[in-house]
Amino acid sequence: MSRVINFSAGPSSIPLEVLQTAQAEFLDYKGCGCSIIEISHRTPIFEEVLFSARDKVKSLYGFGDEYDVLFLQGGATLQFAQVPMNLYNGGVAQYVNTGVWTTKAIKDAKILGINYEVVASSEETKFDRIPKDIKFSDDADYLYICSNNTIYGTQYKEYPKCKCPLVVDSSSDLFAREIDISNIGLFYGGIQKNGGPAGVTLVVVRKDLLDRVGANVPSILRYKTQAEADSMSNTPNTFGIYMLNLTLDWVIKQGGLASINEKNEKKAHLLYSYIDGSNGFYKGHAQDDSRSLMNVSFNILSKELEMKFVKEASEAGMIGLKGHRHLGGIRASLYNAITYENVETLVDFMKEFARKNG
Ligand SMILES: *Cc1c(COP(=O)(O)O)cnc(C)c1O
Fold this sequence. Notes:
The chain is of the alpha/beta class. Helices cover about 35% and strands about 15% of the residues.
């Protein structure tokens, strides 16, 4: 077996142990004589998987009984519309624009015709930072942010301390660190970056917000429908939820979110400090105090060298390093499944590449 080091932004690397457990259990799930993907979601066997994943999400983050945990479909992208459909309450919805994903969320707010306001943006400087001193109104219907900007490589160190419900797109830093949940109204993410395969969106929503939903929102798009049905109002992505549950077991085995965060800090520090010390051969995109621990976006002296870098890295067994088309350059995604040793291998390759091409 030969596996590459996968620095892809999503879908992305999954811990080998998780893949091996899924492989071992695939044909005969715990003695039931069939695969987990062949049984009804209405069986106790599957319900146990779903409830177990739900309970792990709650205990890892510390979400109490005032929250519902939902496993939905339609990607993180559907949340750009589902959030305003369910949480807009006739007042004003506030957004902080920090990149492609928030731009899309704002676009959907506009299409839906709600009253919204962009209270801060880093667009002028090509989204290289998280805006400081965000001026929000505490009685807005909600304040919407993106925790980690997968493309530009920026991340909130702390969430805004608004008194209105905070809505957080955490797709690319799910299960990567502890968060302050005191003002969270809704916390969500597609799991394909840091929690398993594509096709499941984790949504954690405060129960008292469920009744805000607009009168003409169809049943399946109401959080309330899925909350009342334990996410099984229709057939959920059973395989995705099963994989998420295995990944959460792995996260717990790593020592939980604080311990995972410590590892992520060390990994990111190794790469950023090498980039900073490379005499300008490599140049990071994000400003220092906004740097993401998850996605490290950087440039090399020329476009030709960037293409050569991606090609030679791939020949050396490292894939997924080509930057997003919006920004170009190189992007190394250092999600939870990437080890410190993997980052050392990348940095060694970068040193050698700079030596040969500098
Ligand atoms: C990947 C990503 C999305 C889009 O996710 P889909 O599941 O493809 O809809 C949204 N927000 C962020 C922050 C992302 O990283």
